[in-house]
Write a structure and sequence with these properties.
alpha/beta; Spore Coat Polysaccharide Biosynthesis Protein SpsA, Chain A; UDP N-Acetylglucosamine Acyltransferase, domain 1; 2 domains; 23-stranded parallel beta sheet; seven-stranded mixed beta sheet; 10 helices; about 20% helix; elongated; binds uridine-diphosphate-N-acetylglucosamine; binds calcium ion; UDP-N-acetylglucosamine diphosphorylase activity; Nucleotide-diphossugar_trans; cell wall biogenesis/degradation; Hexapep
Length: about 450
């Protein structure tokens, strides 16, 4: 097979985004646009991929480290000028080069592979990926001769009224014979409305030389969406979200309302899990089989086992076992480790705490910086008092402990195996195994005291 190269254009600032964040780093379903592009390009058996960086070069490079080589475009003088920056890395090679814009996050490897195949079949020196757009505004238009041959591409800002009516657009994805590409780029001028060196001008240059130039039209206009502003960003998000949700449904996950379910690309979900509306699954979240997630739950970077139910709750960066029942309205904060068959109920906040098998905190508690054994029952309103204003301390609750309602466990403190804590206790000292600990003022009943008060009035 001939050599294959890829050039991804990612040096522009993206003025129309009106953002501090460089355009190609804006995430779509949790992953920066340009990374979507690189990940698809990586599936194409590429010898070398070069990303052109400029604005936010360091940030883009560190985001894509290991996935691409880089060439710096110090001044952004146009897409043609951008590609030229790859000359040092690949200019002398024989082969086919695919050029993609870093702001087309929906493009797929399949479409690029079809384009490459068409390019090879046609023995072309350049092939444009085009699409038919109902509303072509803003895109370069593909101008064909009366015989239907591609002649050139004209940008929106340079197009005549007649040319603006053309609905076949340049998607910004091209295949070139590598050497012809770099040769033709030398002839591109910046004599146009934007004063830029346009990559699409390579097309008319090659046509003028009598080289074969072809176009491959995709019927999936969605894939070619170029994200220049936040409106297009939201459209890309919507389409990508649909794709991700459909993949999960095809794999055996029930999603009750896909339009209101937000799952990032990195997330995995097992079969027969049901996702209710308003749910967000993000980051490195992995949900097992036969779970019920939602409605209105947010899991970020969580590992969840099988047969677990998480309703109206938030969990971040934690591990949650099998047959666990969480919510409604629980908050699992980072570094929590919840074993099988645990119950974390209404208005319970967990932080950096481990829970052993079968333990329960069913209502209104804060359990932070704690190690909770198995089969522990934490009564309603229990609080681990973990912070003295300066440092955090650990609460250890061993297996089988029963903590009565409304207890304060003032850390550092250890409650020994099978011990009982009487309701309303403020525990400041360790409790031995099998003990009952009561730490509250003894109740005093003053008989007929109310009558005395009334008498004195
Ligand atoms: C470009 C095409 C247009 C096409 C559209 C498809 C040109 C001149 N126009 O227009 O025909 O229909 O994409 O989405 O190519 N970039 C650089 N360096 C630069 C300029 C741009 O790296 O000097 C990068 C940008 O970061 C971006 C990509 O190239 O990722 C495209 O640039 P953009 O300014 O968005 O071009 P469009 O106006 O969308
Ligand atoms: Ca663009």
């Amino acid at each position: 097979m001939t050599n294959r190269f890829a050039v991804v254009l990612a040096a522009g600032q993206g003025t129309r985004m009106k953002s501090k964040l460089y355009k190609v780093l804006h995430p779509v379903c949790g992953k920066p646009m340009v990374e979507h592009v690189i990940d698809q390009v990586s599936k194409l058996n590429i010898n070398k991929a070069v990303t052109i960086i400029g604005h936010g070069a360091e940030a883009v490079e560190s985001q894509l480290k290991g996935k691409s080589s880089f060439a710096l475009q110090e001044e952004q003088l146009g897409t043609g000028h951008a590609v030229m920056q790859a000359e040092e890395l690949i200019g002398s090679e024989d082969g086919t080069t695919i050029v993609v814009c870093g702001d087309t996050p929906l493009i797929t490897a399949k479409t690029m592979e079809d384009l490459l195949q068409h390019h090879i079949d046609q023995e072309a020196k350049a092939t444009i990926l085009t699409a038919y757009a109902e509303n072509p505004f803003g895109y370069g238009r593909v101008i064909r001769s009366s015989e239907g041959n591609v002649e050139r591409i004209v940008e929106q800002k340079d197009a005549s009224a007649d040319e603006q009516k053309v609905k076949e657009i340049n998607t910004g994805v091209f295949c070139f014979d590598n050497k012809h590409l770099f040769q033709a780029l030398k002839e591109v001028s910046n004599d146009n409305a934007q004063g830029e060196y346009y990559l699409p001008d390579v097309i008319s240059i090659l046509v003028a030389k009598g080289e074969t130039v072809s176009a491959f039209q995709t019927d999936d206009i969605d894939e070619t969406l170029g994200v220049n502003d936040r409106i297009a960003l939201s459209q890309a998000e919507k389409i990508m979200k649909e794709r991700i949700n459909m993949d999960h449904m095809r794999n055996g996950v029930t999603i009750i309302d896909p339009a209101n379910t937000y799952i990032e690309q990195s997330v995995t979900i097992g079969r027969d899990t049901i996702i209710y509306p308003g749910t967000m699954l993000t980051g490195e979240t992995a949900v097992g089989e036969d779970c019920i997630i939602g409605p209105h739950s947010e899991l970020k970077d969580c590992a969840v086992g099988n047969n677990t139910v998480i309703r109206q709750s938030v969990a971040h960066n934690s591990s949650i076992g099998n047959k666990v029942n969480i919510g409604p309205f629980a908050h699992i904060r980072p570094q929590s480790d919840i074993a099988d068959e645990v119950k974390i109920g209404n208005f319970v906040e967990i932080k950096k705490a481990s829970f052993g098998k079968g333990s329960k905190a069913s209502h209104l508690s804060y359990i932070g910086d704690a190690e909770v054994g198995s089969d522990v029952n934490i009564g309603c309103g229990t609080i681990t008092v973990n912070y003295d204003g300066k440092n955090k301390f650990l609460t250890k609750i061993e297996d089988g402990v029963f903590v009565g309602c409304n207890s304060n466990l003032v850390a550092p403190v250890k409650i020994g195996k099978n011990a009982y804590i009487a309701a309303g206790s403020t525990i400041t000292e360790d409790v031995p195994e099998e003990a009952l600990s009561i730490a509250r003022a003894r109740q005093v009943n003053k008989e007929d005291y109310v009558k005395k008060l009334k008498h004195n009035q």
